[in-house]
From TrEMBL:
One of its GO terms (molecular function) is oxidoreductase activity. CDD domains: SDR_a5 (cd05243). GO terms for cellular component: chloroplast. Belongs to the NAD(P)-dependent epimerase/dehydratase family. This is NAD(P)-binding domain-containing protein. Residues 9-211 form the NAD(P)-binding domain. PANTHER family: NITROGEN METABOLIC REGULATION PROTEIN NMR-RELATED, OS05G0110300 PROTEIN. It comes from the Eukaryota. It comes from Spirodela intermedia (Intermediate duckweed). InterPro entries: NAD(P)-bd_dom, NAD(P)-bd_dom_sf, SARED1-like.
Amino acid sequence: MSSTVLVTGAGGRTGQIVYRKLKERAEQFVGRGLVRTEESKEKIGGADDVFVGDIRDAAALAPACQGIDALIILTSAVPKMKPGFDPSKGGRPEFFFEDGQFPNSFNLLPSVAAAAAGVKHIVLVGSMGGTDPNHPLNSIGNGNILVWKRKAEQYLADSGIPYTIIRAGGLQDTAGGVRELLVSRDDELLKTETRTIARADVAEVCVQALQIEEAKFKALDLASKPEGAGAPTSDFKSLFSQVTASF
């Protein structure tokens, strides 16, 4: 039987790929999407299985979550550049979070857990760097975004719901399926030269996690070797079996 899977953040660059992969595998999945705006819904085709709602509002989430078997969460707070920056004058741009879009409101999961009661598996996509409170990303808009992502991950790990936490390296808009994927923990990959990964590969790992028992109750850092270095990963059961960390 096919599993019904909701992708939150389906209008984002990685979310669109996950949503498309689910739709392409109709024999295995019934894919749904959740986006923030009608504009985002139209951008990914405007199908009836794409819902518009706020991930922080359990009541608004309820229709999208009704009857789902699994959930892939790709929603995140997104900073905006302050107007007036002139790159010709040097310096660095400043960023801010709009009202209601601050990371501390976006990256906590109670509303999701409430709306998705009974869900069999949640895949949460985050970022590497969360072990370092002084990571440069935390200074953007004074948002401490990685701190709040880590709190969301801890909430999920403590929830009792089967989960897979994927902390991706630097995301690249390149082809997937052509690199050897690497998994680790505690930001160890950030100390190496292999700190990036294609969005398409992150999307594939999300979808594979739903099908492989070894992916459950696991948290992993994810990156890849450069294209041409090593064999492209195809055995995802083996990949998840390398992971021993639950957080």
